[in-house]
Design brief:
With about 290 residues, this protein is α+β, with helices and mostly antiparallel strands. It contains nine helices and 17 strands. The strands form four sheets. Strands 9, 10, 11, 12, 14, 15 and 16 form a seven-stranded mixed beta sheet that branches. Strands 1-2-3-6-5 form a five-stranded mixed β-barrel. A two-stranded antiparallel sheet has the order 4-8. Helix 7 runs parallel beside helix 8. The protein is globular. The relative contact order is 0.09.
């Protein structure tokens, strides 16, 4: 009985530790604020314009209107590299991230919060209505601005059988301008939190972002993503990612893809990319382990 009560008490403490409350003392920018106890909070799921970008001041002012001086509830998700608490922020019953995105004052951060479908739909709703930053024809993502890519995406001529890759989400997924998510068939790139995840994403961006690509449609997955072989000109992008050692052959879904199997074998032998590590963890195993934990 004592053990049971102790376990319940420990579980309660764990649950309490996942949610914090505090009053917003100061707003730093469109997605970051400071509580009266000095805790810095990064709002999970969104990315607001950086200082020096258009709409940065408007985004900050809008977040101030929503949060400054108000008691907030933060469901903690993580702590980032700068020691900031990253979490879902609510002011009363208002989900702050949702209101920032809905009013066109922030992007959905689909790299760090790909599962936040509500934010994604809100962003494309704001974009369709040209709210806030979407009044500009080609607003620059804060991520790209931070990386020094301050010029908007150029206009690209897209043929009838092609789509434009507007934004690469990770090493095997991208979005088109109409919000269609495309998953590269037959490969599995490192997940966020794994070694080489950023390199895989950067390589796919280099290969296709801002370019017209042709899709050889295969399926639709459980997350409603189009699954396809992607071609940029004559280059099979799925195969190229495996050749570069930045993705596995996903043999469970593509057991007959001999070209992918051969490319992985060759990359392993040359210790290319992720194969430079002695025991790289398959993304499937990484996801499974995280679910179990």
């Amino acid at each position: 009985m004592i053990k049971k009560l102790l376990l319940i008490s420990m579980l309660a403490c764990t649950l309490q530790a996942e949610t914090i409350t505090g009053t917003c003392k100061r707003v730093l920018d469109g997605d970051t604020l400071i509580l009266t106890d000095g805790t810095t909070v990064q709002i999970w799921g969104i990315d607001a314009p950086e200082k020096g970008q258009d709409y940065a001041d408007k985004a900050r002012a809008h977040l101030e209107k929503l949060t400054k001086g108000r008691k907030l509830t933060i469901e903690v998700k993580d702590t980032d590299q700068y020691g900031r608490v990253v979490g879902e922020v609510k002011a009363g019953d208002k989900d702050v991230a949702y209101f920032m995105v809905r009013t066109g004052m922030a992007w959905h951060d689909d790299y760090n919060a790909p599962e936040a479908e509500g934010l994604n739909k809100s962003m494309y709703g704001a974009r369709k209505k040209r709210r806030g930053l979407w009044a500009d024809d080609a607003p620059v993502r804060p991520y790209d601005f931070r990386k020094g890519k301050s010029t908007p995406m150029p206009q690209v001529e897209v043929a009838a059988d092609e789509v434009l890759c507007e934004h690469v989400m990770d090493g095997d997924t991208f979005r088109t301008p109409d919000n269609t998510r495309v998953r590269l068939w037959g490969i599995d790139a490192p997940e966020k939190g794994q070694p080489y995840a950023d390199k895989a994403r950067a390589r796919l961006k280099e290969l296709i972002e801002g370019k017209a690509v042709r899709l050889e449609w295969k399926d639709k997955d459980q997350h409603a993503r189009e699954v396809a072989i992607v071609y940029a000109g004559s280059t099979n992008i799925n195969l190229q990612m495996v050749k570069d050692g930045l993705a596995w052959h996903y043999e469970y879904f593509a057991p007959d893809a001999e070209d992918l199997a051969a490319a992985e074998k060759a990359a392993r032998k040359k210790r290319k990319g992720l194969w430079a590590d002695k025991n790289p963890v398959n993304p499937y195993e990484f996801r499974k382990r995280n679910r179990e934990e």
